[in-house]
Amino acid sequence: MHIPLSPKSRRKAAAAASKEEDERDDTTLDVLETVSQVRAKVYSKRHKEQKTIAFVPTMGGLHQGHVSLIQLALNKYDFVVVSVYVNPMQFAPNEDFDLYPRTLEEDLEKMKNLRENARMCVFAPKESLFGKGVDPSECAHVTVPNVGQGLCATTRPHFFGGVATVVLKLLNIVKPDAAVFGRKDYQQLKVIEKMVRDFDLDVEILSGEIVREPVNGDASDADSCPGLAMSSRNTYLTEKARKQAESISVALKDVADGISGRSDEFTPAMGANMAQGWVGFIKRCIELSGGKVDYVEIRQRETLEGPVEKLVKGEKYVVLA
Ligand code: PAF
């Protein structure tokens, strides 16, 4: 159970935090472990220093993709809170909650390399945000219909409810002006945007580009997998599986290259052929590499409505795999 701070103790905590701030060395990155520490820090930044606040939620295992989201937040806002929390509610009992990479020391080093310690803090809760010893399935739970169904939810039906619930909790704890999510997890981004709209949450949602393994990386490096979208879970992949995973980005890029600059040639009659052609092509590329397809779909880019079976000129789509 989290006991909210009274206005008096909040002011006291903020004064103590800001005294500590004045005295501290800029090489130190603040790592906060409790909800009240984060609330006090944000209160002090916002009300004493009049700073704008951005928030980057992560589950740790940081890679360049996360770093780019943190950089995006630092570019647009005065102060950035990064959370590192492996959320039990988004894992089904048979999934990898115990195995999920927990690399806090390395994560902190990557954040320190940004040389923005004075403009950042890390929220790395030591205890479950759902309460010590409390089963998360006993807690209030957010459901996001439509965009939260199909695609990834077909094989992981529990997933988006768990993500939306913890993000709502984190937004209530940090109360940022903006929160940043990666477009790699496009359905997750849309789920969060819908939750924010449906609950009238007063927060701007920013999205960051997918960061991929370098295409001109060292080819002799067994780990090199040009174009593969960076993900904390890539560390699970064997060399063979990494090569299979690479087929997704290669196929998506081929489709994107094939379309770009060709909209003048598009006729209504081509709409259905193109949609089926792309989906079939991407599925085949994945299967030929030895991979197994969960889904390849074209959806409306903003609403995720679909699957789209016939393309219409002027509409904006996203291809998801
Ligand atoms: O994308 C992630 O890492 C997680 O789903 C998030 C948004 C941090 C919620 O646990």
UniProtKB/TrEMBL annotation:
Gene Ontology biological-process annotations: pantothenate biosynthetic process
One GO cellular component term noted in the UniProt record for this chain: cytosol
Pathways involved: Cofactor biosynthesis; (R)-pantothenate biosynthesis; (R)-pantothenate from (R)-pantoate and beta-alanine: step 1/1
ATP-binding in keyword set: yes
Residues forming coiled coils: none
Region (Disordered): 1-25
Keywords (A to Z) from UniProt: ATP-binding, Ligase, Nucleotide-binding, Pantothenate biosynthesis
Pfam families named among the record's database cross-references: Pantoate_ligase (PF02569)
Catalysed reactions listed for this entry: (R)-pantoate + beta-alanine + ATP = (R)-pantothenate + AMP + diphosphate + H(+)
Superkingdom assignment: Eukaryota
Single GO molecular function: ATP binding
Assigned EC number: 6.3.2.1
HAMAP family: PanC
Family to which the UniProt record says this protein belongs: Belongs to the pantothenate synthetase family.
Full protein name: Pantoate--beta-alanine ligase
Phylogenetic placement of the source organism: Eukaryota, Viridiplantae, Chlorophyta, Mamiellophyceae, Mamiellales
